[in-house]
């Protein structure tokens, strides 16, 4: 630097100088100020984009959460359209399956092209789905008012409508949580930032159910307020979700994703995960990453390499991102602990899903035929579930950040190098302990219902709805946090999407089980019959008790599987995974 300052004419001298002096001091200072200003401006812009994306993710997640209020209008399918319990559960099961089966594909797309296309897809599917459901319900209502009691012909079309709703919902939800996971995956409060949209999903149930029951209700012949007007409610949701989805298509962005991928590549090669990856090492050497050039072993890899490093920077970044995400997906699928964890998640969350879908009809079984004294409403308990679920999601995310140990980075952690540092606190509680506690809380709720403790005492049903809501919410929020902690954030959409398929199986299985038990119980006295053989309503413990006992045991088995994944042979503890 001294020689440069005494010889301003030498080639290494900067082009920008102070006109008042031949030294480089002032020019260097001005350059530093400009660089600092540019860096500060870039950081502020990135922070602004993250904030806008976060707000949009919260709104998108709240919009997607409107699907959780099925119990608010599900009983109206039975009372107004005269659908059987099997048909109602068929609609609910189709909705649940469509929410989970496409998640791996949608997550794969979200990881590779970003969240905006998913939000646009949600606009089309949710607008069409709720619009079709509104038209079908209105048609069935007109037929019923004209004395026609056979509306079974519209059931397949209603199933189609809720399939569209299910796929649209998961597209909107996945775009929001993936945005938060990647934008805030490196912060010390990453658990809470990821839980925020998940909690908004649960809170939406309370908000939407109250709008439906308090503003969009039917008028009884005496002028008093009746139940939710399903036709108007569906139209309201169609318009609302189109607006939310369009805003998400413009606002949801992954900030500094190239930097995230570069850091992941470097760290995972250091840990041995990408050891021997000639594609990335040669590609990086062209950009001064300092890796040693080596021969490419596979001809197809050579073609990929040529297209990756001989093009522009953007092409190289896309190549590197695709290679890394594909490698992480293969590693994720070959990890046996992932399958144990997913099975445990399935056995725990399935009963919770089935309870939420059938909450309205379960309440109907608690009261004797013709009883109208202090009858609790489905809207009340949908709100209770939403509130307790939201509180549990926020609490579990906060405890995860405050009490649980954290790995040294936000990238893939498979115990490849257990010597890497981690952030451990004086009072340390594993996230697995938290999710097991949530599962136990959920099982207490199903067990209280199974014992018949609330039968003929609907005023006690809040115990069940609050326990199930809290346990369900905590499990659903801790699961994606655990996925990011162990398998990283860069491939989060795909990884979480694969695990999220399993609840669809559990929801369908338990929904059908509940329907079968309900229908058999309706054939035994006492039952409530409304003028036709297919309009039979069940009353008493025989309608649900055996189903919820089985659900309780299922949750306990699921907790055992997760415990084995954590502490068992070749489990996460033995592999040095920080969780």
TrEMBL record:
GO cellular component: fungal-type vacuole membrane
PANTHER family noted in UniProt: TRANSPORTER MCH1-RELATED, UNCHARACTERIZED NODULIN-LIKE PROTEIN
Record-stated family: Belongs to the major facilitator superfamily.
Transmembrane segments: 52-74, 86-106, 118-137, 157-180, 192-211, 231-252, 432-455, 461-489, 496-517, 548-566
UniProt keyword Hydrolase, yes or no: no
Acidic residues: bias regions: 295-313
Low complexity bias locations: 28-42
InterPro entries hit by this protein: MFS, MFS_trans_sf
Keywords for the protein's UniProt record, in alphabetical order: Membrane, Transmembrane, Transmembrane helix, Transport, Vacuole
Topological category with respect to the lipid bilayer: Multi-pass membrane protein
Annotated localization: Vacuole membrane
Biased composition (Polar residues): 18-27
Keyword Zinc-finger: no
Molecular function terms from GO: transmembrane transporter activity
Lineage start: Eukaryota, Fungi, Dikarya, Ascomycota, Pezizomycotina
Organism of origin: Pseudomassariella vexata
Protein name (record): Probable transporter MCH1
Region of interest (Disordered), ranges: 1-42, 284-313
